[in-house]
Amino acid sequence: MNDIVKISKISGTALPMRGNDIDTDRIIPARYLKEVTFARMGEYPFFDERYGSNGKKKDHPFNDPEYRGASVLFVNKNFGCGSSREHAPQALNRFGIKAIVGESFAAIFAGNCTMMGVPTVTVDETAMRQLMKSVEENPKTEYTVDLESKTLTYGDVKVAIDLPETFRSALITGSWDSTALLRANLAQVKETATKLPYMNNFAG
Amino acid sequence: MAGKTLYDKIWQSHTVGVLPTGQTQLFIGLHLIHEITTAPAFDMLREKGMDVAFRDRTFATLDHIVPTDLRQRPFLDQEAEELTQALEKNVKQFGVEFFGLESANQGIVHVIGPQLGLTQPGMTLACGDSHTSTHGAFGTLAFGIGTSQVRDVLATQTLAMDKLKVRRININGALGTGVYAKDVILYIIRKLGVGGGKGFAYEYGGAVIDRMSMEERMTVCNMSIEGGALVGYVNPDDTTFEYLKGRPYTPKGEAFDRAVRYWRSVASDADANYDDVVDYDGKDIEPTVTWGINPGQSVGISENLPRPEQSADPEGAKKAYEHMGWTPGAPIIGTPINVAFIGSCTNGRLADFRAAARIAKGRKVNPNVRALVVPGSAEVKKLAEAEGLDKIFEAAGFQWREAGCSMCLAMNPDKLSGREISASSSNRNFIGRQGSPQGRTLLMSPAMVAAAALNGKVVDVRQYE
User: Fold this and answer.
1) Predicted pLDDT at B1
2) Which helix (H) or strand (E) holds B342?
3) Fewer CB within 10 Å, N- or C-terminus of chain B?
4) Which of A78, A185, A190 to mutate: most B Cβ within 10 Å?
5) DSSP B217-261
6) How far apart are CA B157 and CA B23, in angstroms?
7) A178 vs B65, B86, B160: nearest CB
8) For residue B303, is pLDDT > 60?
9) Mean pLDDT across the stretch B403-423?
10) What whole-number distance in Å separates Cα of residue B239 and Cα of residue B226?
11) What span, in angstroms and rounded, lies between the C-alpha atoms of B265 and B278?
12) Separation of CA B416 from chain center
């Protein structure tokens, strides 16, 4: 049985990634989905906008040495829209991101992050404007995401954060790593199955 | 007390229990798997010493990386070969039914499930691909999931899920000539936004939807996720039952009659309660073309490109113009293209090829255009060839290929190069989507792609209809 990892507080410096509707093809180009494991995903986030075709580094928050070592990512609306590829949150997480704060997240992406123990929490438009400004002005700022009190603190500023109660509960109790939890109910699963008409040739 | 939606009914009958987190443990009636998202999931199962809980509800195929021309093994692409071998090894070890490269049933997961009669009304369905919403066309709750969730479905045949709200979308009236299911869903996404469906399942209805064939309904449901809706569905009806009759995995004889009774019962009640209802009229929908870098950035064929300041997201529009290079206010008609792609889980079925072939028949692809037609499955290819569609396409100068996801996401050798512009019947126009970071994608219906291929530029397909 694997150890339960409870996630309630994440502290660290931040990285701002501006723009609405940032999609999973940008986060991780499809060619990297051909790798058999997730091991190298941390090398690839936003690859095609960080590197030119000649391999030269471009100006990009993920290349900026000022934000090196950041564990919190700031984003705008509908972040992670597009594909269900778990490679996207894997790339961000293995790059070093442990929590994402945004105005809104695409459904599959947020679910994938939670399954990996990476909280995706929301703040309103005004708060995100201020957060991005604060990190761009001082990249050394420390941010703390607290899932128990549902707050994000930096300096003497406290911002309200939100996330679905089910995700919050999963992260805090450690049951975000869901297989064991679901598998424990295998007997009930089989019982539910037998009652479904298509599972018994519609025997009525 | 108000009646129930299909969503309510299927959610209820598939609920195993409520988890300590508050999420529902939901039984998954059908699990479709393909080579991309599954290797790590099977590895995790092996690590934990678990087996596949319901082997007979699990079906696998190859679609994303499979070449559509030279298919000799080992594949020229070493990574594609490695991934394919991993899936072959896993399905053998875990005892899962596999429609491999040589199988007559091979194809895009969302094409073969329905074709085989595996996808049936009143089921929940999961697959490690966001366009799983396609299967909602049959009155299923079909979820696109990530690798860790694939692991959960393999190990437990369940998912931990939160219940969604339901938005009923009525497409009333009728569609004009030359306007197709693809235009309907592009219109809906344009209206409601790419994030508009967040937290919702979309139930599509109204006279236009009622009149649609199953293949057309699949096109609509396929792109639900592009509108932010995890789930999209159409209530099952006689069109659905007629389609399913006689398919390999559909019940036969008396069991079929009993099945139809069950299937009818899962449709939304006439007095069902919806969280939101929107109404659109078919006559307002034109042949539609995306001009930007997300599926919501589209215009009707007679319209001019929008000015960023007038857009709901001016920053997003500006970024789109930067990448695409168009001039705001210019007409979309006349936009040149270099590549034409007809295929994908959105529009890779027989009806799509018939519509495109009608346009292509007796005409020639513009000499500056590279045009590909990729069947959604080996079965679709066979049926299309039986009708001579392949001959029509080849005579016109289109390449006729083997089945796979192909240029939709360019994980196989079918890619754009440099700044090439494609007219594509697929579902995403994100930057880099079709294999080149500078490539540009215009999404449209298969008939519109055919028309663009003939002219070397975007035209109004209605001139041919």
Assistant:
1) 66
2) strand B339-342
3) N
4) A78
5) HHHHHHGGGGGT-SEEEE---HHHHHHHTT-TTS--THHHHHHHH
6) 16
7) B160
8) yes
9) 93
10) 26
11) 24
12) 20
Residues of B in contact with A181 (CB under 8 A): 19-20, 160
pTM of the complete model: 0.95
- Inform me whether the pLDDT recorded for B302 exceeds 80: yes
B124 and B10 Cβ atoms separated by less than 8 Å: yes
The pLDDT, as a whole number, for residue B312 is: 85
* B134 has pLDDT over 90: yes
- The DSSP bridge pattern shows strands B399-400 and B370-373 to be parallel
Q: Which of residues 24-83 of B touch A (CB under 8 A)?
A: 25, 27, 29, 36-37, 39-40, 43-44, 48, 50, 53-54, 64-65, 77, 79-80, 82-83
Tokens 């930057």 belong to B431
Alpha helices (H) in B292-366, listed in sequence order: 314-324, 344-347, 350-360
ipTM of the shown complex: 0.90
**Does B142 contact A at CB distance below 8 Å?**
no
Candidate from A53, A87, A192 with C-beta closest to B27: A192
A158 token code pair: 């406290």
Joined tokens for residue B106:
């091979």
CA torsion sign, B356 to B357 to B359 to B365? positive
DSSP helix/strand/coil, A118? coil
Q: Helical H runs in B31-98?
A: 39-48, 78-94
* Minimum distance, in Å, between the CA of residue A155 and any CA atom of chain B: 30
Question: For the residues A166-174, what does the mean pLDDT come to?
Answer: 95
DSSP assignment string, B102-128: T-TT-B-HHHHHHHTT-S-TT-EEEES
B1-286 and B288-463 share one fold:
yes
Check: CATH 3.30.499.10 for B1-286? yes
- Give the pLDDT band (50/70/90) at residue A204: low
> Using the beta-carbon criterion (under 8 Å), do A84 and B129 form an inter-chain contact?
yes
Nearest to B93 by CA among B158, B45, B159, B32: B45
Q: What 3-state class would DSSP assign to B40?
A: helix
Tokens of A137: 């002005």
CATH number corresponding to B288-463: 3.30.499.10
DSSP B369-398: -EEEE--SBHHHHHHHHHTTHHHHHHHHT-
**pLDDT at A1 exceeding the cut of 70:** no
pLDDT at A2: 55
Domains, chain A: 9-175 (3.20.19.10)
Give CA–CA dist B370/B111, Å, rounded. Answer: 25
Please check the confidence at residue B283 and state whether its pLDDT lies above 50: yes
Kindly give the residue spans of alpha helices, DSSP state H, lying in chain A.
24-27, 47-50, 87-95, 107-115, 125-137, 165-173, 179-183, 186-194
Task: State the average pLDDT for chain B.
Answer: 96
| B151–A179 C-beta distance less than 8 A | yes
Q: What is the mean pLDDT of residues B375-379?
A: 97
Q: Could you say which of A53, A82, A196 has the minimum Cβ distance to residue B430? A: A82
Mean pLDDT value across residues A127-137: 98
Is-contact B377 B108, C-beta < 8 A? yes
- For residue B432, the SS3 value is coil
Domain spans, chain B? 1-286, 288-463
B437 lies within 8 A of chain A by CB: yes
B147, B162, B427: best to mutate for the A interface, most A CBs within 10 A: B147
